[in-house]
Design a protein that fits this description.
The protein has about 800 residues and is of the alpha/beta class.
Length: about 800
């Protein structure tokens, strides 16, 4: 690093001699390494790249000039290039005409490009800059421009262009643009500024935060603590993720003390508080992926542990569903399985235990009817009678007390006009839109409250928002002073447009807004100290009559929509499946939480991680929708014209299920008498239904068995079984048995007849050996000495 103090002292003496600057009050600051920065607007508004020279300018007193005051500016140069820069000069310019309105200030502060020939105003000061090595930063001594050189006396009030150019060897190395506001005594109506800020956490895959995560996030340096601390004491409205609130409440007595303290501080905050969508889900992206409404949680029952809310509870919890012994029950078909002729039926269908309890999941009930939609409910749970504290309900877990109507807040730069009616139909009274996508229909700045695409909206001011974020996240005093001066001039220009008409603007902090500097309170306080600005609340913005605004469609990327489509599809599959259950929440609640968690705006910057989570999500959805299904069976032989086919249906959920069984033969050899048989199977059990069938012809038949809900939604995977049909065998067997009976009795009669005939024939021939006449005593007559009778 090269010595620069002597050079600066000489330069300052020369400038004092010609009257351009006041004497320096301190020595040149030592050069310090420049912090790493991505391409962005440097302090002062010039857009530069991190590997280029940068110049920053920061007027004192938020850039406000009043009669009798001088202009003092701080300057800083950074050599972001790989080459050393030799000594040069910074020239400061002021353009004396006032901007007509906010649009002029915005185009000045953020031009499309800059160059050495740009007009920056009248030269009011010049200061020497020492050589700056590659990668180094040098803060110059403050430069004071006397009021006499400003030339603003007698001028009307308003924002003015302030600029500076860093020249090295006669060429522009960098330029910077800022602004000041000249304010002699003048009457006008101050512009009101409302601010909204989200309070969220990093991405999660389950939809709830465990005790470890909550303890970290609510610790003194945790992200939730930093966000809340930055907002308390300001007029900013807090949009809080209900997932944080529900997660703390779910833990009951086991919640970390830092988390319960954080929740209590939120509840007592003087700020306006309103709930975001659960897990800060990407509502625009979900709509563009096919969601017919805004999704919200439907149940936390699987996550509520009563022991956390009743210290005296000693009962052991019931065993997990997977460990319960499955039961099998006989479920008769609606037809009479015993009517008609009986026939032999061989059944070797596999019974087996049903799968264990599924993970809960909830989705959409068809494309146009989705369960658990709209804003989260806010009522509190009434206290129950008795000593035991009540276990939390869906409503009490999600309750975020607020005086504001339900507000939808899609992520910045994701919304199209078609999203807004869906938000409104889901119960949201208004939608917070960023001003880069929604614009007023005239050249002046209108109120934040607007009607967009036929719906109510609060449209943030893009320029005010950008500058507020820059000031709130400023890395040091010079950067903060620079941002505040430009922010103040921008708000002043709004009042300058129509001095007698009050305007209420909205500025929003984006997701992931910086809390590292803690300058939000200072920024808002300083701004409200200016005559042309005052604080406002969201309720104030909503109370103003809305103006007309239009929206420029800025849809999500194709990759983002494809990822969210996986969630929408999986959510719908589970909800459709759950219609067969007496208690759909046993499978919908937990997966809906997971759907919302993976749809969070926090995942938008972690595409690789989300891809892995979506694969696991899809596999789990497949498992859930298969928990009610037909049990695969072995081959069956059916003998007879009429018979019954046994079909086993298993239910692996914790709720009774009612499905409709359809049996379809592959050919006409077998006829099924009923096409849709209602079957009810109790939780964690297996049922058997006897399906009446009629044999038509002999031959093999493949029977496909499918399940569906009452509305025809397929349930489970179809199963099939091979059947051998022997039509008419029952008649043949009966005929054969009849013939055998006839032959048996007929043969006996015939034998008797033939025997008698032989006996008569033997008597006619006198053959005593062929016939004996039995007397009264049973002895042959020949034994008595009598002659045989003819």
């Amino acid at each position: 690093m090269r010595p620069v103090t002597a050079l600066l002292a000489a330069a300052a003496s020369a400038l004092v001699a010609v009257g351009l600057v006041a004497p320096a009050t301190g020595a040149q600051a030592a050069a310090t390494p420049s912090p790493t920065a991505s391409p962005s607007a440097s302090a002062g508004g010039a857009r530069t790249s991190a590997d280029e020279p940068r110049l920053e300018i920061a007027p004192a007193d938020a850039g406000t000039l009043v009669p009798g005051s001088d202009l003092t500016v701080a300057l800083r140069v950074t050599n972001g290039s790989d080459d050393d820069l030799r000594a040069g000069t910074v020239r400061v310019y002021l353009d004396r005409p006032a901007f007509d309105g906010a649009a002029g200030v915005a185009s000045w502060l953020d031009p499309d490009d800059t160059g050495g020939s740009d007009y920056l105003g009248s030269l009011v000061a010049s200061v020497q800059v020492p050589a700056v090595d590659a990668g180094e930063t040098v803060e110059l001594d403050p430069v004071t421009v006397p009021e006499s050189r400003l030339g603003l006396a007698g001028q009307a009030w308003g924002a003015r262009a302030l600029g500076a150019r860093w020249l090295v060897g006669g060429d522009e190395a960098a330029q910077v643009r800022s602004s000041v506001t000249w304010f002699p005594s003048q009457d006008f109506v101050a512009t009101r500024l409302a601010v909204a800020a989200p309070v969220t956490t990093p991405e999660t895959s389950t939809g709830v935060l465990d005790a470890t995560a909550l303890a970290a996030y609510t610790s003194p340096g945790g992200t939730l603590t930093r966000q809340l601390d930055a907002l308390l004491g300001t007029d900013a409205a807090i949009g809080v993720d209900p997932m944080v609130v529900a997660s703390i409440r779910l833990l009951g007595d086991e919640a970390p003390s830092s988390a319960t303290a954080w929740l209590a501080e939120l509840a007592s905050a003087p700020n306006e508080v309103f709930p975001l969508t659960y897990a800060d889900s990407d509502i625009s992206g979900l709509r563009q992926a096919g969601a017919a409404s805004v999704l919200s949680p439907t149940s936390f029952d699987d996550l509520v542990d009563p022991s956390r809310f009743d210290a005296t509870a000693t009962a052991s919890p019931s065993p997990p569903a997977a460990e319960r012994e499955p039961a099998t029950e006989e479920i008769p078909a609606s037809g009479d399985t015993t009517s008609g002729g009986s026939g032999a039926s061989t059944d070797t269908a596999q019974g087996g235990s049903a799968p264990g309890g599924s993970t809960g999941t909830e989705g959409q009930d068809g494309a146009d009817d989705e369960g658990g939609t709209g804003p989260a409910p806010t009522p509190s749970t009434p206290a129950s009678d008795g000593d035991a504290p009540p276990t939390p309900t869906l409503e009490s877990l999600l309750s975020v007390p607020t005086t504001l109507p339900a507000l939808a807040w899609p992520a910045r730069g994701t919304t199209v006009a078609a999203d807004l009616p869906v938000f409104a139909a889901s119960g949201y009274a208004s939608t917070i839109l960023d001003g880069t996508g929604a614009t007023d229909d005239d050249d002046t700045t209108d109120d934040a409250h607007a009607t967009v695409a036929g719906t109510d909206a609060l449209v943030s001011d893009a320029d005010v928002t950008r500058l507020l974020e820059e000031a709130a996240g400023a890395r040091d005093d010079l950067a903060w002073q620079s941002a505040v001066a430009r922010l103040s001039a921008t708000v002043a220009s709004v009042a300058h447009e129509r001095p007698s008409e009050p305007r209420t603007l909205l500025a929003t902090l984006d997701r992931g807004w910086s809390t590292s500097s803690g300058r939000l309170d200072d920024t808002l306080t300083t701004l409200e100290q200016q005559p042309w600005a005052t604080g406002a609340r969201l309720a104030d913005a909503l109370a103003v009559a809305p103006s007309a605004a239009t929206i420029t469609d800025r849809p999500e990327t194709d990759d983002r929509v494809a990822a969210l489509d996986t969630l929408v599809t999986g959510d719908r599959r589970v909800t459709d499946f759950a219609t067969v259950l007496d208690d759909p929440d046993v499978v919908t609640g937990t997966v809906r939480l997971r759907t919302l968690a993976l749809a969070s705006t926090a995942w938008a910057t972690n595409e690789d991680g989300l891809t892995d989570e979506l694969a696991a999500y899809t596999a789990d959805v497949d498992a859930v929708v298969s928990t009610v299904s037909v049990v695969e069976g072995s081959d069956v032989a059916i003998l007879g014209d009429r018979s019954s086919l046994p079909v086993y249906v298993q239910n692996g959920t914790d709720s009774a299920a009612t499905v409709y069984l359809t049996v379809e033969p592959s050919n006409s050899f077998l006829s099924v008498e009923e096409t849709s048989i209602p079957v009810t199977v109790q939780a964690q059990s297996q049922g058997r239904v006897m399906v009446p069938v009629t044999s038509i012809a002999n031959g093999p038949v493949v029977v496909t068995m499918t399940l569906a809900s009452q509305t025809g939604v397929p349930v489970g995977t179809p199963a099939s079984v091979s059947i051998t049909v022997q039509a008419g065998w029952e008649t043949a067997i009966t005929g054969t048995l009849g013939a055998l009976v006839v032959l048996l009795f007929g043969g006996g009669i015939l034998r008797s007849v033939l025997k008698r005939r032989r006996a008569r024939a033997a008597g006619a021939t006198g053959d005593p050996g062929d016939h004996w006449d039995v007397g009264d005593h049973g002895a042959p007559e020949a034994a008595a000495g009598r002659e045989p009778r003819a």
